[in-house]
Every structure is written in structure tokens, then in C-alpha cells.
Write the C-alpha cells for this entry.
Amino acid sequence: MLIANDTTYVYNLRYEVIERLIREGYEVAVVCEKQLYVDEIKESGAVFLPATIKRHSKNPFTDLLMIHMFYKVIRKYRPETVLTYNIKPNVYGGLVCEGLHIPYITNITGLGTAVEYPGFIQKITVLLYKIALGKAACVFFQNRENKEFFVKKNIRCKRGRLIPGSGVNLEKYCVLDYPDTKEVHLIFVARILKEKGIDQYLEAAKEIRKKNESVYFHVIGGCDDEHYINILQKENESGNIIYHGLQKNMLEYQKMSSCIVLPSYYPEGMNNVLLESAASGRPIITTSRSGCGEIVEDGVTGFIVKERDTRDLVCKIEKFLAMSYEERKNMGLAGRRKVEREFDREIVVQAYVDEIKRLER
């Protein structure tokens, strides 16, 4: 059984795990919120069990209902192993599995701002992690900083493994022809959150567009923070950006993109947009933040910018704009070679198969 936030997440990042397990002869059930790609998940041969996952809720009553829901579905199906992803499925799914004596494997997909920053919520979440993950068969970490956080907070687990994020499907994300046009298209793809660096991106767009109208700044993603809906509409109307909202199919945007820009200071696991962009042969401009910085070789596959620093972001974008077509293209190809070496999704899939097989011995 696989428990995560929603079907979009499962399809985009865990589909290959499901496929491989089914090929290995396992029956797989997916428990999560219904969003996109439900039919695709069912077509894989997996059973889809819709659930209500209130990932942003801070209401204890709502969370108790979530725990009860996990308890009912796990007790009913009695899976041999449960794979959990995202904070609430990790914590509440882990607690239920522990209570029902069912082996579970947890993936720390990023800390989230509530866990990273000191305060009451961090204390509560750390306590829940200590209870929920103590008996996990294995805890996968997507970057060293997350693993070190768990050590620092004395969150112990029986077995921990570092994996290269969710990896990237190198067949699905093949090298795209690099656009040879006078116009340069820079693309920001993320949930629209302050910590993803959207403010710095909008400020950089405004400044650079004043000097160079052949550079287009695109924004793709849904607004987790409603505060940004009016801001994006205003910037779109002014011509500083082109806002596309949430998009299911990113291929056409990847084809036209000259570079992916993500000045994030969010506590990432391993940023999948950057992995997919590098696999497609696109340079990336991002911060050295864990989950972003590991994907970039500064000056080789893209550029590293300082966190929350609009001036540095403008500087690095202008440095990229000064490069020739061949230099930009070669930078993208260097990024492809890097993900082939270090971030192939098959590495992650095999890690799951190995841990599940280990439980059977």
C-alpha cells in the first residue's frame, strides 16, 4: 500500500515504483486525495482508494479524522508493507502501521516550513516524528540536510538511507532541441509560495523587462497562497510576466524554455522540476538550498544565486543572457549528463525493491 497526499504527486513521482512492484508480482493499492491522473494510476493495475488528506490543516479534530481513516483502510486491507510519502501520511500512516504491527517504509520528501522553523508546530511535529518513525523498517532521505536535521533533533530510526530525491525518468524526459530564437523564455515552475522565491523572480522580471523586451518571464503553478492571485494577475496584465496557472502537461513549455529559474529557499526534499528540466537539456538558475543546489554545477549546468537576493538573481540572469546560443545549449547538455550520472529514477525504484525484498527475508 502506498499512502501520499494526492494522485498528481503519485503519478508524477511514484508511478515507476508502482509499475515495478506490479511487474514483480505484487498487488498495489494507492491511498490519497483524488486530483489528476486517476485513470492512469488505475491503468497501471493499482487499486485506487480515495482519501481525504488535509495537508495544510492545523485543526486537531481534522487530523484525528485522518488518522481514523488511515486506520480503517490499513486494517481492512492488511498490506504486507506500507510506503508513506509527505508529512501527514508519514506521521499518521506511520503511527497506524506501528499500532497494527505492519512494516512501513517512509520517505522524507522535504521538511516543510512548519517543521524547519523553530516554534510550537515544529516541536509537535518533531515529537510525532519520533513516535511515528522509530519503528519504520527504513526511512529514505532525499538530501543530507534533512538527514542531519533528524540526527540533530534526535529522531531515531532503525535504518536510514540517502537516495537522489525522487529521481527522474530519463526516458520520459529526453533531451529536447534547444530553442534557437531571438526571444529568450525563462520559466518559473512551482507551487506559488513566498519561500519558492516568487517575489525575487517577479522583481527580477520587472527590472530586466525594462531593459530587454525580448526576454519573457513565465510563471507556471497553482497559488497555495491566495495572496499571490491578484499579484500575478496584475503582473501579467502589466506585461512583466506571462502567468499560465497550473498546467498538467509541461512538455510544450519545456520545449520553448531557454532556462528554468527557481530562486527557492523552501525546505525542499529534491526539487523535481529542476531534475526534469536538467534531464530535458535545459540550464537552471537556482539557489544552493538543499534539494536545489545538488542539481546544479555552478557555471557548468547553470548558475547558483543567493537566497532572497534579487540583485544577485538579476546579475545571474543577465550573465545567462550574455551567453551565446552554443554556450546555453552546452550548459543544458552538461545538466543532462549530470542527472544521468546521479539522478536516474531507476536508482530510487531499485532502492524500494531492495528494502521490500529485505523485509521478506
Residues 60-77 form the longest helix (18 residues). The mean pLDDT is 94. The two ends are 19 Å apart (CA to CA).
